[in-house]
Amino acid sequence: MGLKKNKLFLKAIDLSDSLGVKDYVWHFSKYKEVLEFCLKNEIIILGGDIILFENSTYNFESSSWHYGGQSYKDSINTARVYLEKYSLKNDVDSTYIAFVFKGIN
Length: 105
Known about the structure:
globular; 4 helices; alpha+beta; 5-stranded antiparallel β-sheet; Ribulose 1,5 Bisphosphate Carboxylase/Oxygenase
């Protein structure tokens, strides 16, 4: 499945230039849209990294989560629970998420 062909992907930020990694991130405010997309398309989320935008630079934070099962519903729930807890403890205005999807290039 090509995520790049979906409108949701157009809301992502390409980190190739700023961090030199082939990764795309979404602003924290978009995470529910990403989870909904994964639910509708039965996509497993293997995990994700929290990235902060500070001083005009993207920086990986030490926060992340992972999922090792085979259920797309459980993987989405794992991501949802983690991100909801994260948002209760942290200011998310300058926060981005790099999701790791199974089977998407």
